[in-house]
Amino acid sequence: MSTTDASASPIVEMTGVTVMIDETTVLRGIDFRLFPGEIHALMGGNGAGKSSLVKALTGAYRIAGGELRVDGEPVVLAGPAAAEAAGIAAAFQDVDLCGNLSIAENVMIGHEERGWSGISWRRTRSRAVEVLDELGLGDLDPKRAVSTLPPAIQQLVAIARAMVTHPKVLVLDEPTSSLDADEVATLFRALRRLRDHGVAILFVSHFLEQVYAISDRITVLRDAVGQGEYRTRELDRAVLISKMIGKDLTELRRIGSERRAHRVDPTGEPVYQATGVGRRGEFEATDLELHRGEVVGFGGLRGSGRSELGQLLSGVARRDSGTIRVDGREAALPNPAAALRRRVAYASEDRRDGGIIEELSVRDNIILALQGMRGWARPISRAERDALVERFMESLLIVAPGPDAPARQLSGGNQQKVLLARWLATRPHVLVLDEPTRGVDISAKVEIQARVAELAREGMAVVFISSELDEVVRLSDRIVILKDRRKIGEVSNGPGLSVDTIIEMIAADDEDDA
């Protein structure tokens, strides 16, 4: 439990804080408190201002109005170094470690222990072990290369690096986005140790269950404005969601109801037909048909081969068996460019390495695939580019300072929607969406799911891949059940289908194999 009591004073206090970026207000009159010995969750919908608050607190954004106090004293953070000097450290969603260096070198980078002849690696490793031990990782070999560590331990090494200077405040921005349940449990044990030693932890996450499991208090933002501060145990989940998105859960229920009402059994020739498609060691040969106007979900547990099958269907991975027909004609699809020419598009689950180019503008990210289809000898006119970008920014509710803003300035949910816009601009007949709502908040999730439903109504064939089975059931007309990198069944959606149905099918397959 939190060591915070009613008489404690906040270690961090924001009063009426406003932040402006390129004449756009990204935080408006925010009041925020963070106490020693607590884990404080920051929640909000898409573009709510979570990242802006983090950047203001860590010195990356200048505070234009209001006041920031640390330990009761007013401070002006001129940059991250000033934040570190004030006792504020951070570890971010994208773990920025040097994989070729050792654990000790990563933990102590910039803070190596020195002697008369330079860096003392013996003392540096000893200090790294001390910091790791505070996180319950004292048994790690400090000489081990970081690249050999699982994601959760890499995340803890990044936190250890932030803790080297003994900060009073630790800011964690989406630290669990790429972790599984066991890895999250490992991270949470370490965070509780830090909390119990008096560290104030700001925990930014879109995972509601994790927030309720780890946090003591919650602050909610919406549209750059604070919506209140609450004790976690006193805040009902439905109330939290309604404060985040400005409406209740009926929107998600409406999407599911509309999908069920829209559903019809596919008839006629499929727009896409895979026969015996597979790849040795990656996915067992399988058959699949896709019809216009339907959403086909891939349901399976971790390691079932959801992404692998999606990549085989869209030319991202090269198949070594089977045939593919698109619009009735055989198609080789040896690579994504060839697939795109046949109007088959794939949106990667990894928006950082396989999707968004952060240095490019929102406009350039959106038109990238379309320009690639046409070839660089036929540039898209400025008028057409502007019309396309304006249409998709409006229809997908993309929140950005403007179309010329670098994509790195956008929230994760908005980056995901820019990536979706890129593929929609190519007017695909078949769209494979791999984890389109991973790493986004509930508001962006609602918007993306609503757009997927709309695409099906417009006649597109959509493959919807998600690790969240409730999403798959909500959106899909048919669900392909996967396990151990093979297709074990296929089921039509309907009133009697639930997440439990899919899990039971997977479990029944275990019994059949026994």
Automatic annotation (TrEMBL):
Residues 12-248, 266-509 form the ABC transporter domain. Coiled coil: none annotated. Keywords: ATP-binding, Nucleotide-binding, Repeat, Transport. It holds the Pfam family ABC_tran. It comes from the Bacteria. InterPro entries: AAA+_ATPase, ABC_carbohydrate_import_ATPase, ABC_transporter-like_ATP-bd, ABC_transporter-like_CS, P-loop_NTPase. The keyword Transport applies. One of its GO terms (molecular function) is ATP binding. This is Sugar ABC transporter ATP-binding protein. It comes from Agromyces sp. G08B096.
